[in-house]
């Protein structure tokens, strides 16, 4: 194409990620001087990141989010590209060199690029479509904005919607996760024996299933769906399976695979097998001026459904067409997948397991933490690796998979830091051509070049390169590479300290402004403070929490800003039922309370009654519609085991009965729980009081822990953890009385409420702020803020209301409406 005249007309059919990326690469190589560029896209938008649709579905992003929109409409004008948006190309005449659109528009070309992508594969099953061929009401694919908006509208228009997702691959699990986040009852149906069978072996798929089920999503494998069931009005009522069983649903989402969109090419006489057949320069077979790129193309017998190969194809095609490298050739891709599946990090490359008796196979799995790692070595070369949960070695394994680093003799060191460099230490040594962000095709060299060209902050690098703007699994490595490239000169990004992305204020600034303007509803905050007054779905829950922290019961309760747990004051379980935990202050109960709990368990057929790690009794498996009656029959306050709030105070028996007790831990624990019960906090807050340093109540590893040390003195520890992270708390102070514990405890909790990031546990907050700073401001009052903290925590305490009292006056008609269908829970065996 080196002799292509400057007036050549370049037509790109398809305005998706492949088509738009190819045009970007062409423009970057001087294509504006070489071509008059026209694009045809059947959606009425600019180019957007389809990977982000799962974030839109889960409420973490909006349709107009800048991370979703890759090329807004203004980009086309600014780059001299004519875009015909919302008009589908329907016919290609290769001899007249024209493409005809659905509107009747005819566009001629000298060079044609077909980038029509792929379509959802809808299996042949009864009830899936209307008589005219359209999908039935309540049936969706998951490929575009229209699909996503349709699901969201149905989910938000009705309470207690249930959904079945057909297909347990990456897309299906992302759809299930998004719908579950919207409060729907969700079941995934997958015909193979384990989830993500294309990327994971049976062990990995089994562990992924456990992680998915923890999110409250039902999983049904080895089940083939034969029909979508509908009522007389045409509404979806469920699905049926080959064995005759059924599953109720109001919505069906089909994610059973994709098929290249090659119908126009086939009708025009191009060679089409699974996809449009192309050579190493992405040229269609037997054609001199027609090319294909992306998911619609078939190269050397392979089609690719991942973005990384598409980016490689786009670069090759741009170099060929612009003449910057007329001999450029695409030889196929060794696919490596690194992504976040429903919140779970996954990396996979090559084969899933050993294929010959001589293959070396190393496998590690830890079900409790959801960690799975495996690798396959053949003839001294890495031919496959899978990581789930902990993917910190993905960068190193990718290099090994590409043959760029020798393999250590101890193969296990490839999965753990037992001789290979740590992620942070090796960031500077990674090769420049290593692809760091698979979602947007960003290499280490791209990141380094961006830093060297003047980007001063991590967010600026991400904005310019789009690294980390897809699934987000690469953000840690991106940060390490950018820091290494900046050589210590990376500037602090002010937006990193904003409480929510859409409001350019730190949390203290936002609190002050909300107080000053008397803003009491989330919608008011968006209208007055958000950039362009736009609502941001991901900001609703943190803003609701902040308003409750500031105003207590006087905030304006907008139900749409709350998670399902906060709307019904119970903890949703994986089958759609709820967990109820009545308060037992300090873990102390009475025979009367125990009788009430036993009576409620009998009356409502509670499947599981369990003692919690926080010394409470948990009633699991209660139906949503039964919650108000359960609370009424219990006639006990809420134990707050469901929200981002002060949870429980765990105690030992202290001086009452223990021979080693140095302080009355039980009485102090009850006093702490009575004072701070139900306080809204940025993340859950767990407390404990130990009557002596033997620490039977585990006070040393709680968010706020108190230990009696004798002579009436108490040590106060903060920032401890014993969950997914283990951290001994830092000693804030030693005080002389229980009253002083309550006073200093209130100051710390209020300071944490006002300054911690959303969902930041104290074990992250305390190290970030610094123990010395906390001692200076809370113990020594060096900034003269103690009086204000004491006053505000007292106001919050005075505003406490037991949320279970809401049973007598629901906030909405659907608040406690039935939540069906339910999955059967296993019964505890009689022992």
From TrEMBL:
Going by the record, the broad EC class of this enzyme is: oxidoreductase
UniProt domain FAD/NAD(P)-binding: residue ranges: 9-302
Q: Which cofactor does it need?
A: FAD; [2Fe-2S] cluster; siroheme; [4Fe-4S] cluster
* Reaction catalysed by this enzyme: hydrogen sulfide + 6 oxidized [2Fe-2S]-[ferredoxin] + 3 H2O = sulfite + 6 reduced [2Fe-2S]-[ferredoxin] + 7 H(+)
Q: Where is the Nitrite/sulphite reductase 4Fe-4S domain?
A: 643-778
Q: What does this protein do?
A: Catalyzes the reduction of sulfite to sulfide, a step in the biosynthesis of sulfur-containing amino acids and cofactors.
Family designation: Belongs to the nitrite and sulfite reductase 4Fe-4S domain family.
Which named protein is this?
assimilatory sulfite reductase (ferredoxin)
Q: Provide the species name.
A: Rhodococcus tibetensis
| Upper lineage | Bacteria, Bacillati, Actinomycetota, Actinomycetes, Mycobacteriales
Give me the gene this protein comes from: nirB
């Amino acid at each position: 194409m080196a002799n292509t005249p400057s007036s050549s007309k370049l037509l790109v059919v398809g305005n998706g990620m492949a088509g738009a990326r190819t045009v970007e690469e062409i423009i970057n190589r001087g294509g504006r001087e070489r071509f008059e560029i026209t694009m045809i896209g059947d959606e009425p938008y600019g180019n957007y990141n389809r990977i982000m649709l799962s974030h839109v579905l889960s409420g973490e992003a909006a349709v107009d989010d800048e991370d979703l929109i890759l090329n807004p409409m203004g980009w086309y004008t600014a780059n001299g590209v004519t875009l015909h948006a919302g008009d589908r190309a329907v016919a290609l005449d290769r001899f007249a060199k024209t493409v005809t659109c659905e509107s009747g528009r005819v566009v001629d070309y000298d060079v044609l690029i077909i980038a029509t992508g792929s379509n959802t594969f809808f299996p042949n099953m009864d009830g899936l479509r209307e008589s005219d061929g359209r999908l039935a009401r309540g049936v969706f694919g998951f490929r575009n904005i229209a699909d996503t908006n349709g699901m969201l509208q149905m989910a938000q228009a009705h309470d207690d919607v249930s959904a079945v997702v057909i297909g347990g691959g990456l897309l299906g699990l992302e759809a299930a996760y998004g719908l579950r986040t919207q409060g729907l009852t969700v079941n995934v149906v997958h015909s193979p024996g384990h989830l993500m069978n294309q990327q994971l072996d049976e062990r990995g798929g089994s562990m992924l299933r456990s992680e998915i089920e923890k999110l409250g999503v039902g999983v049904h494998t080895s089940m083939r769906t034969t029909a979508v069931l509908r009522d007389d009005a045409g509404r979806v009522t469920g699905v049926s399976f080959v064995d005759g069983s059924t599953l109720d649903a109001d919505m069906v989402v089909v994610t059973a695979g994709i098929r290249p969109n090659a119908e126009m090419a086939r009708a025009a006489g191009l060679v089409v097998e699974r996809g449009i057949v192309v050579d190493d320069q992405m040229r269609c077979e037997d054609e001199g001026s027609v090319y294909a790129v992306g998911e619609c193309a078939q190269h050397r017998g392979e089609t690719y459904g991942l973005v990384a190969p598409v980016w490689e194809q786009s670069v090759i095609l741009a170099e060929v067409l612009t003449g910057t490298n007329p001999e450029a050739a695409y030889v196929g891709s060794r696919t490596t997948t690194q992504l976040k599946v429903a919140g779970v990090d996954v990396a996979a490359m090559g084969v899933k397991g050993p294929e010959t008796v001589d293959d070396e196979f190393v496998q590690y799995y830890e079900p409790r933490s959801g960690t799975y790692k495996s690798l396959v070595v053949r003839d001294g070369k890495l031919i496959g690796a899978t990581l789930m949960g902990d993917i910190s070695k993905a960068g190193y394994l990718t290099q090994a998979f590409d043959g760029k680093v020798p393999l250590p003799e101890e193969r296990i060191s490839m999965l753990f830091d037992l001789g290979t460099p740590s992620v942070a230490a090796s960031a500077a040594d990674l090769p420049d051509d290593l692809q760091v962000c698979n979602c947007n095709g960003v290499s280490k060299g791209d990141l380094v070049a961006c830093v060297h060209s003047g980007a001063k902050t991590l967010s600026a690098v991400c904005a310019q390169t789009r690294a980390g703007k897809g699934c987000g699994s690469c953000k840690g490595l991106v940060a390490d590479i950018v820091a290494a490239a900046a050589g210590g000169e990376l500037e602090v990004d002010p937006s990193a300290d904003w409480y929510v992305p859409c409001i350019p204020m730190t949390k203290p600034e936002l609190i002050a402004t909300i107080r000053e303007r008397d803003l009491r509803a989330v919608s008011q905050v968006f209208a007055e403070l958000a950039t362009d007054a736009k609502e941001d779905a991901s900001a609703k829950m943190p803003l609701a929490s902040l308003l409750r922290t500031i105003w207590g019961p006087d905030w304006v309760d907008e139900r749409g800003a709350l998670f399902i747990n906060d709307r019904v004051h119970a903890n949703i379980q994986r089958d759609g039922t709820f967990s109820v935990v009545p308060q037992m202050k300090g873990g102390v109960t009475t025979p009367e309370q125990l009788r009430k709990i036993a009576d409620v368990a009998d009356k409502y057929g509670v499947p599981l009654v369990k003692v919690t790690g926080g010394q409470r009794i948990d009633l699991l498996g209660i139906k949503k519609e039964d919650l108000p009656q359960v609370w009424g029959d219990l006639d006990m306050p809420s134990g707050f085991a469901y929200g981002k709030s002060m949870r429980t105070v765990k105690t030992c028996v202290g001086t009452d009965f223990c021979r080693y007790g140095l302080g009355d831990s039980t009485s102090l624990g009850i006093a702490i729980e009575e004072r701070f019960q139900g306080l809204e906090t940025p993340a859950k807050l767990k407390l404990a009081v130990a009557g002596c340093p033997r620490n039977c109540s585990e006070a040393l590893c709680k968010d706020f822990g108190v230990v009696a040390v004798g002579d009436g003195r108490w040590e106060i520890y903060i920032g401890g953890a014993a969950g997914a992270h283990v951290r001994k708390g830092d000693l804030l102070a030693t005080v002389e009385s229980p009253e002083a514990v309550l006073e200093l405890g209130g100051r710390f909790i209020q300071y944490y409420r006002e300054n911690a990031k959303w969902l930041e546990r104290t074990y992250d907050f305390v190290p970030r702020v610094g123990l010395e700073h906390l001692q200076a401001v809370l113990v020594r009052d060096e900034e003269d803020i103690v009086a204000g903290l004491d006053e505000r925590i007292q106001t919050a305490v005075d505003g406490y209301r037991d949320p279970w009292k809401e049973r007598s006056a629901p906030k909405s008609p659907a608040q406690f409406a039935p939540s069906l269908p339910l999955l059967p829970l296993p019964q505890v065996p009689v022992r």
